[in-house]
Amino acid sequence: MTKRPVLVVLFDGVQSLDVTGPVEVFSAAGHFTADADADAYPIRTASLDGAPVRTASGLRLTPDTPLAGTEVEHTLLVPGGEGTRAPDPRLVDWLREHAPRARRLLSVCTGALLLAEAGLLDGRRATTHWAHCDRLARRHPAVDVDPDPIFVRDGRIATSAGVTAGIDLALSLVEEDHGREVALAVARVLVVFLRRPGNQAQFSAQLAAQTARREPLREVQRWISEHPEGDLSVEALAARARLSPRHFARAFRIETGMTPGRYVERIRLEHARRLLEDSRDGVEEISRACGYGTPEAMRRAFVRTLGAAPAEYRRRFRGHVSAHTESP
Fold first, then answer.
1. What Pfam families does the record tag this protein with (predicted)?
2. Which domain holds residue 90?
């Protein structure tokens, strides 16, 4: 089996989950490969001087080796965290010199800022935590910053959004290297979604909206998410919340930041996208499962929001996946 060593850069103020999330994915993957090679992704951690670092949450991490003299064999992972606000110039210099040697260069969260400081993202498309995209764009105008995706692949360089997005990125790489079944097995062990494409939004529809303060409205939000195929008219939802339609619509908008109709539209579209990506169901079946009623209604929603009909969206998605099936 081809081994793909992973070198993880550590520094004071690093976000611990940026490190441990991808490491857990790579570590678990070996147990599910064809020959169950637990060392499919040999992992090393390194800090500037080889000394322990304190994470942003106060945990101490002890690296395996100092960065000086450490060779990048395959994958270099650069996490983010508070330590990226005023990075040690020696770290930036090390990245500038050594990161170009990596066959795969990955950043998690604000680790993209370190790559940008080293000039490694100039002329490339990249993302980072949504709260730091403006900062990345202002400080590094040569970087094409996309604030929406969970992760972005641009050649051998991949940048991911905030914190847990590093898990999504790592899972996508495991899928490239060893196939969907291995990646899915890892996702199940870690109890996370297997999000294959980087073009998913950083926020799900539920996260994009505020959570209502009152329990009846929160229950309605849960109901919508769990029953996209149901009767989600204002009248039906108001009855579930035991409010008049007018009072419900007003309260829902005030507490969630969007109208009930807009929330339902986002939930249904997100559910339809996932079914197109992860199932073999036909467009007509998916349109019923997502509450659109007819394929034409779903087509109009997709064209209006995504600029592509459902069949075209599925074709593009599969093209995106197949474009990355060759292992580096």
1. DJ-1_PfpI, HTH_18
2. 6-190
**Alpha-carbon distance 8 to 99, whole Å?**
11
Is 21 within 8 Å of 164 (Cβ atoms)?
yes
Per-residue pLDDT of 64-101, as tens digits, reads: 999 998 999 999 999 999 999 999 999 999 999 999 99
pLDDT, average across residues 110-135? 96
26 inside domain: yes
Return the CATH number at 174: 3.40.50.880
Q: State phi, psi for 324 to the nearest 5 degrees.
A: -120, 25
CA triple 150-155-156, angle to 5 deg: 90
Number of domains in the chain: 2
What are the residue numbers of the active site? Answer: 109
Distance from C-alpha of 233 to C-alpha of 255, rounded to nearest angstrom: 18
Instruction: List C-alpha distances in Å: 143 to 41, 83, 121, 126, 160.
Output: 30, 21, 6, 7, 14
Mean pLDDT of 210-217: 82
Same domain, 79 and 221: no
Can you name the residues that pair with 14 across neighbouring β-strands?
A: 81
Of 122 and 280, the structure prediction assigns the larger pLDDT to 122
Residue 199 in any domain: the answer is no
- The C-alpha atoms of residue 82 and residue 47 are separated, in whole angstroms, by 16
